[in-house]
């Protein structure tokens, strides 16, 4: 070891010395004594290691403290980071799906801060029911007789299958045995629910006679699944929900319709294609309908089961229901979200999911034009920035083939794939990460879901991207 390095090793402040430094008190107040001590120890030891590795100088106490602060700040940052979703997928499952309405956020906060009458009947002073808070609202909005809520739609499907068809057959068309993603495969869910899967028909064609031939005394239910994330085209045939409900009724077997996303309103009003509404599914004669809370509905993660009162009662007696129930926070957010649907005229203003989906293209184009120069300035000459038209998706399996005209920026760096990766990484490393999508050798930012434009611009000041020479 060099003479100079030995000398400076000797001059290094001790852990105690740094802990006694007046500025350390603020760190201790903010991060706690144990965390701070640990960070000081680690900082000093890594500085010592760099000295041994050939580093010439050791920082002074202020320098050490700055490193300690940086380490503490990094460790205390949540890994669940707020970000800008510029992927063009409005309901992105990996980015947390729906953003809640202000009303829902406030209701959830109120429920978090206080004790609430979640299962307490204020009239009688006796035990109340968790589902009472939503039942009336959901029944009004869907025309169903009764309703219950669980953790998510996967849980809703699992619970329905287990309640109505444990040890029995569940009849499903081969054209509807879907995988939703993230290990949610219909056949596997059925097996876990204790149900015998009876596949009928073929991938592209299933007829009424296929259902009729499969029905027997051991049949627990007939399941119809909305093939939400793909579509079979060409020589196809499926049995309509209405016809299926007549077949099921004649055999005294319940028909369950898993709508997946499900929507409570006619989306054609907002210029989108018509997705079957929950009300339609109920009116077509399904005995039970299941759908998600955080897809098109625009609320928190939840799964709704609506339909016949006698069947909902049996579901509520299943002990599994207890394991799949929702907490007061989400219940409050669900209630507030559903209440917004009572005023359809203002819904697109108040519900972010719908606001994003219905956003006028001229509005998005104007934003893209405004931001082009800002982004260009942040990047310098090595990246070409163009305003482009692009197409957004709803996401989470709703209207899979439908894309919505949108606008954004295409960032094309000189130098190919590696540089494009580096560019995407630089945007992901911003204080508030910006997530776009890569397509045709460019990083695409679709601005449909960008509502905090000033925040986006401020954030760019921290962009650290250097094009390779
Ligand atoms: C999304 C989806 C599910 C799962 O719903 P989660 O709310 O994500 O649990 C089940 N069935 C269908 C048809 C779906 O589209």
CATH topology of the largest domain: Aspartate Aminotransferase, domain 2
Radius of gyration, in Å, reads 28 Å
Measured as a percent range, the helix fraction is 40-55%
Strands across the major sheet, in which order? 2-10-9-8-7-3-6
* CATH superfamily label of the largest domain: Type I PLP-dependent aspartate aminotransferase-like (Major domain)
CATH C-level category of the largest domain: Alpha Beta
The DSSP helix count reads 20
* Tertiary shape: globular
Uncertain residue segments: 1-7
CATH architecture of the largest domain: 3-Layer(aba) Sandwich
Total strand segments: 15
Attached small molecules = pyridoxal-5'-phosphate
Beta-strand content bin: 15-25%
Largest sheet: 7 strands, mixed
Kindly, what is the distance between the CA atoms of the first and last residues, rounded to a whole number of angstroms?
A: 36 Å
Which whole number gives the mean pLDDT? Answer: 92
When the domains are counted, the total is: 3
What class do helices, strands and sheet pairing give?
Answer: alpha/beta
Task: Summarize the structure in words.
It is a single chain. It contains 20 helices and 15 strands. With 469 residues, it is of the alpha/beta class. The chain folds into 3 domains: 2-76, no CATH class; 84-93 and 356-462, Aspartate Aminotransferase, domain 1 (Alpha-Beta Complex); 102-346, Aspartate Aminotransferase, domain 2. The strands form 4 sheets. It has a 7-stranded mixed β-sheet, sandwiched between helices. Helix 3 packs across helix 4 (33-52), helix 6 runs antiparallel to helix 15 (328-340) and helix 7 runs parallel beside helix 15. The structure holds pyridoxal-5'-phosphate. Pyridoxal-5'-phosphate (PLP) is lined by residues 152-154, 157, 180, 184, 225-226, 228, 258, 260-261, 292, 303, 396-397.
